[in-house]
Amino acid sequence: MELCHLKEIGLPMASMATLNGVHKEPRKPKEAPKEAHTLQATPVEKGDKREMRPQNALAQPATHATRPLYMDGTYIFECEAQVREMSLNEGVLSIELDQTLFHPQGGGQPSDTGLLCAKGLSDLSVVFVSKDKVKEGVIRHDCKADEAVIQAWLSHKGKELKVHCKVDEPKRRLAARLHSAGHLLDVAIFGLGFRWQAGKGYHFEEGPYVEYIPTNEGRQLDMKDAKAKTVAMEEISAKMKELVAKNISTEIGFVDGMRTISMDGVSCGCGGTHVESSSEIGEVSIKKIQAKQGNIRVSYAV
């Protein structure tokens, strides 16, 4: 599988503004759809709009003990933060911050990686970021360094410690392209007449795919018909090429505190990082369509 190298593909690099210690590009989120949605959703036509019908919509917006700055913009790579808690477990230093640019692994998207820097201390490598399984809204940064470096950081436990966060920019840009390609695939599938229900998404560099639950509505595909699958793959590939060239904007909105992502009228709830327009995704190739326990898995690459 040939993956596009991390080169610039029309990515916006406007002059930077500073707000609350965060370097970012000014950009106002667009209006959100009227309903809040989750990733598991069914496309529904509403006039000239296509929305993803929520299956497990949150009753209330999630609260964030750690402010997720990565939701403010994909192309924000550095920020300041305050350490709230540190703990050492089997040589890994887990750090909780008051705010972070690091996207935690989840929602089909891999964890960001990068560095944590502090005055008078050697840098820590952020190797994995995750949401705390016990403390709601807390994001943990698992860091590695030499033992002496870790002990130096731990000596500041319980004291005020400001850090500078640096996200691995090439990895973040690739993650955004992969994740947005998965959302654009939903648009292509709907545009070709299929009314499959979007389910599991896997937007990692190694073998990304979206898994759909087939329905009795719309166009049907016999998964036992090899020729029909080949035709569907070709049509989806052509449709993706068309949608990328169309330069469709990624619209970010909020409904009662819940974040939504919309592309060409197809929307759903999502907390991931995304490109600002489809042209930034670049070429998308459809690798395979296969049956998976009664579902339809569409594999792709960027």
From TrEMBL:
Record has Ligase as a keyword: yes
Xref: InterPro entries: Alanyl-tRNA_Editing_Enzymes, Thr/Ala-tRNA-synth_IIc_edit, Transl_B-barrel_sf, tRNA_SAD
Q: Which GO terms describe its molecular function?
A: ligase activity
Q: Which UniProt keywords apply?
A: Ligase
Name the residue ranges with Basic and acidic residues bias.
Answer: 24-37
Q: Does the keyword Membrane apply?
A: no
Region Disordered: list its residue ranges.
24-62
Q: Tell me which Pfam families the record gives.
A: tRNA_SAD (PF07973)
The record places domain Threonyl/alanyl tRNA synthetase SAD at 258-299
Q: Which cofactor does it need?
A: Zn(2+)
Recorded family membership: Belongs to the class-II aminoacyl-tRNA synthetase family. Alax-L subfamily.
Q: What is this protein called?
A: Alanine--tRNA ligase (Alanyl-tRNA synthetase) (AlaRS)
